[in-house]
Amino acid sequence: IADPAHFLSFTHPDDIEYVRTTMEEAGRAERVEVEYRIIRSNGQVRWVWTRYKQVEVAPGDPPLVAVVVTDITAQKDAQRAEVSARAEAVRANAAKTEFLSRMSHELRTPMNAILGFAQLLGMDELNEDQHESVRQIIRGGRHLLDLINEVLDISRIDSGELALSTESVLVSDVLDEVMDLVVPLVAARNLTVVMPEEDVCHEHVLADRQRFKQVLLNLVANAIKYNRNDGEIRSSCSSRPNGEFA
Question: What is the DSSP letter of 9?
């Protein structure tokens, strides 16, 4: 090209000075690469990647520069889409954090009130059935409060890690707690619950108590949900030679 400035005639106005500086540098450096925008004759804007490289010439001949121009519009569009998606993910994560922060207060406050009034109710003169109902409210409320505390632990959610707090857990105690929580559901479906012998589940396992309890509760809840009316729920415990417990 006799006139290198010809490149500037179709360069995007915002990139002209940048390209002009690069072209001047290309006259001195062995190789230069640059990305910029051009405007086609139909007005379409395209991104190009241009490489300038010095070409060896005979002594006394004018200097030559080889120029290779590659259309990289598709790559640029993909980069912009990725940046936009990443920004949207950041906004969504911030919205989630704000939501959980608000829910932390809005869920804990009424739950603590429920537990407080249930405890006051338990101090009244009630018959045994009424006292048992109050105890179920308190047990269920505390379990729900524990779940709320776990769900709203924002730091663990953001890090993607769920720490386990393992301890020696008596299986029969957890099973009894689970069954106490589902008594109203069992009664509504008129289901029969068959529990294992008292000493069969009197074993300790190494587990995270809260999550162990939640797993059993999910299993029992499914047994209730997908059962037939007047059906039966049967639980069992057994130890295995390898030290596991089922």
Answer: G
Q: How far apart are CA 141 and CA 133, in angstroms?
A: 12
Contact between residue 80 and residue 47 where contact means Cβ atoms under 8 Å apart = no
Q: Are 34 and 27 in contact (CB under 8 A)?
A: no
Q: What is the Cβ-side half-sphere exposure of residue 56, based on CA atoms within 13 angstroms?
A: 0
Closest C-alpha to 210, from 153, 159, 134, 154? 153
∠ Cα 28 31 36 (to 5°) = 100
Strand-pairing partners, residue 53, are 31, 66
Cβ count near 106 (within 10 Å): 10
pLDDT in tens, 187-239: 888 888 888 876 778 888 888 888 888 888 888 888 888 888 888 988 888 87
User: In this structure, are residues 98 and 154 in contact, taking their beta carbons and an 8 Å threshold?
Assistant: no
Is 226 in contact with 187 (CB distance < 8 Å)? no
Q: What is the DSSP string of 112-146?
A: HHHHHHHHHHHTS---HHHHHHHHHHHHHHHHHHH
Question: Across the strands, what pairs with 67?
Answer: 52
Neighbours of 122 (CB within 10 A): 15
Length of the chain as a residue count? 246
* Residue 75 to residue 53: CA distance in whole angstroms: 23
Under 8 Å between Cβ of 113 and 144: no
Bridge partner list, 35: 49
The Cα angle at residue 132 between residues 123 and 150, in degrees rounded to 5: 90
